[in-house]
Amino acid sequence: MSPSFDATSNEPKPLSDTLGRGLVDLRISVTDRCNFRCQYCMPKEVFGPDFAFLPHEDLLTFEEITRLASVFARAGVKKLRVTGGEPLLRRDLEQLIAMLAGIEGIEDIALTTNGSLLTPKRAKQLKDAGLHRVTVSLDSLRDEVFMAMNDVRFPVSKVLSAINAAQLAGLSPVKINMVVKRGVNDEDVIEMAKHFRGTGHIIRFIEYMDVGNSNGWRMNDVVSASEILEKIHQRWPLHAIAPRRPGEVATRYLYDDGQGEIGVIASVTRAFCGSCTRARLSPEGQLFTCLFSGHGHDFRERLRRGESDEQLYDFITGIWRSRNDRYSELRTEATGRRKKVEMSHIGG
Ligand code: SAM
Ligand code: SF4
Ligand code: SF4
């Protein structure tokens, strides 16, 4: 490896991009497939029976993912998040978690899932393999609303069971992701807050984003974090608290009455590009330096033609040093129409 050195101190210079942001988090999407068709992510009209998902041989193997993750760890990555598509569709995911858990320098491994396959047994296997935490997505507590949103008639009760399973397995605190879309589930914010208050779970309200080019995003469909917070604050007063660490995507709040924590992820109305330390690896080994990128950098080809760790390290650091992404700070309805990678391909 060839880290650059600070001429005055002889210490390796921490890797940083053109806007001074380090590389701390790696999100690994392990599949582009999903058993849900959430309308804001994989609308059926686009992801129908004829959609060409990646063939299995195009996916990075667990060995390839682990090798890359270990080179990323040497470049500064400390946190991994396994995502998708639906990551639990990938067979033997526990094995991958165990392999990732063995990488020196990795301090935290999390998983984002729709919960549909997170049984008590699977949750325990994941925990035993070295997974620290899970985020489970749930957009409403009302079956008619949730089923319309996931568009495969998946019931709320099974996701609630998955959240329980995660907690019992010690994958806690469990985070719950709720994407709020105007006219679809904005009426459900209070019920969701009420349900998870006092449980130790942390619900995060996410502004609906213009990821990819499939969901027909319009600014009018976005419910702002301020609006969400105001609604909750009127019922149960809240106060803001400091981020757990720099670069955290959610802004954190505590209920004044001690009933726990919530978060908002305000990518649209309060862009947080300035502290974005996240890189994203797609299932077929493309590295994306922004959730809204139009293209990635191919690592699979380099892995399969036998590049050394040193060469991969140099490729990673070269990409990072020239990174200048700040899509959310520049967003307009027009940027929304640019070609962008799909959320279901690259993960949240
Ligand atoms: N399938 C898993 C799940 O749903 O948790 C993991 C992948 S999913 C792409 C990751 C997260 O992205 C989910 O919490 C999902 O709700 C969120 N998401 C998907 N499309 C979104 C959009 N257009 N705006 C905001 N969040 C979105
Ligand atoms: Fe699947 Fe997650 Fe996208 Fe819903 S949000 S379609 S569960 S990948
Ligand atoms: Fe990071 Fe891109 Fe999101 Fe900005 S828009 S926070 S650079 S992923």
TrEMBL record:
<dbReference type="GO" id="GO:1904047">
    <property type="term" value="F:S-adenosyl-L-methionine binding"/>
</dbReference>
<feature type="binding site">
    <location>
        <position position="34"/>
    </location>
    <ligand>
        <name>[4Fe-4S] cluster 1</name>
    </ligand>
</feature>
<feature type="binding site">
    <location>
        <position position="273"/>
    </location>
    <ligand>
        <name>[4Fe-4S] cluster 2</name>
    </ligand>
</feature>
<feature type="binding site">
    <location>
        <position position="38"/>
    </location>
    <ligand>
        <name>[4Fe-4S] cluster 1</name>
    </ligand>
</feature>
<keyword id="KW-0501">Molybdenum cofactor biosynthesis</keyword>
<dbReference type="Pfam" id="PF06463">
    <property type="entry name" value="Mob_synth_C"/>
</dbReference>
<comment type="function">
    <text>Catalyzes the cyclization of GTP to (8S)-3',8-cyclo-7,8-dihydroguanosine 5'-triphosphate.</text>
</comment>
<comment type="subunit">
    <text>Monomer and homodimer.</text>
</comment>
<feature type="binding site">
    <location>
        <position position="85"/>
    </location>
    <ligand>
        <name>S-adenosyl-L-methionine</name>
    </ligand>
</feature>
<dbReference type="InterPro" id="IPR010505">
    <property type="entry name" value="MoaA_twitch"/>
</dbReference>
<dbReference type="GO" id="GO:0061799">
    <property type="term" value="F:cyclic pyranopterin monophosphate synthase activity"/>
</dbReference>
<dbReference type="GO" id="GO:0051539">
    <property type="term" value="F:4 iron, 4 sulfur cluster binding"/>
</dbReference>
<dbReference type="GO" id="GO:0061798">
    <property type="term" value="F:GTP 3',8'-cyclase activity"/>
</dbReference>
<keyword id="KW-0411">Iron-sulfur</keyword>
<dbReference type="InterPro" id="IPR007197">
    <property type="entry name" value="rSAM"/>
</dbReference>
<dbReference type="GO" id="GO:0046872">
    <property type="term" value="F:metal ion binding"/>
</dbReference>
<dbReference type="GO" id="GO:0005525">
    <property type="term" value="F:GTP binding"/>
</dbReference>
<keyword id="KW-0479">Metal-binding</keyword>
<feature type="binding site">
    <location>
        <position position="290"/>
    </location>
    <ligand>
        <name>[4Fe-4S] cluster 2</name>
    </ligand>
</feature>
<dbReference type="InterPro" id="IPR013785">
    <property type="entry name" value="Aldolase_TIM"/>
</dbReference>
<comment type="similarity">
    <text>Belongs to the radical SAM superfamily. MoaA family.</text>
</comment>
<feature type="domain" description="Radical SAM core">
    <location>
        <begin position="18"/>
        <end position="239"/>
    </location>
</feature>
<keyword id="KW-0456">Lyase</keyword>
<keyword id="KW-0949">S-adenosyl-L-methionine</keyword>
<dbReference type="InterPro" id="IPR006638">
    <property type="entry name" value="Elp3/MiaA/NifB-like_rSAM"/>
</dbReference>
<dbReference type="Pfam" id="PF04055">
    <property type="entry name" value="Radical_SAM"/>
</dbReference>
<feature type="binding site">
    <location>
        <position position="81"/>
    </location>
    <ligand>
        <name>GTP</name>
    </ligand>
</feature>
<dbReference type="InterPro" id="IPR040064">
    <property type="entry name" value="MoaA-like"/>
</dbReference>
<dbReference type="InterPro" id="IPR058240">
    <property type="entry name" value="rSAM_sf"/>
</dbReference>
<comment type="pathway">
    <text>Cofactor biosynthesis; molybdopterin biosynthesis.</text>
</comment>
<feature type="binding site">
    <location>
        <position position="276"/>
    </location>
    <ligand>
        <name>[4Fe-4S] cluster 2</name>
    </ligand>
</feature>
<keyword id="KW-0547">Nucleotide-binding</keyword>
<keyword id="KW-0342">GTP-binding</keyword>
<feature type="binding site">
    <location>
        <position position="209"/>
    </location>
    <ligand>
        <name>S-adenosyl-L-methionine</name>
    </ligand>
</feature>
<dbReference type="GO" id="GO:0006777">
    <property type="term" value="P:Mo-molybdopterin cofactor biosynthetic process"/>
</dbReference>
<feature type="binding site">
    <location>
        <position position="137"/>
    </location>
    <ligand>
        <name>S-adenosyl-L-methionine</name>
    </ligand>
</feature>
<keyword id="KW-0408">Iron</keyword>
<feature type="binding site">
    <location>
        <position position="27"/>
    </location>
    <ligand>
        <name>GTP</name>
    </ligand>
</feature>
<feature type="binding site">
    <location>
        <position position="40"/>
    </location>
    <ligand>
        <name>S-adenosyl-L-methionine</name>
    </ligand>
</feature>
<feature type="binding site">
    <location>
        <position position="41"/>
    </location>
    <ligand>
        <name>[4Fe-4S] cluster 1</name>
    </ligand>
</feature>
<dbReference type="InterPro" id="IPR013483">
    <property type="entry name" value="MoaA"/>
</dbReference>
<dbReference type="InterPro" id="IPR000385">
    <property type="entry name" value="MoaA_NifB_PqqE_Fe-S-bd_CS"/>
</dbReference>
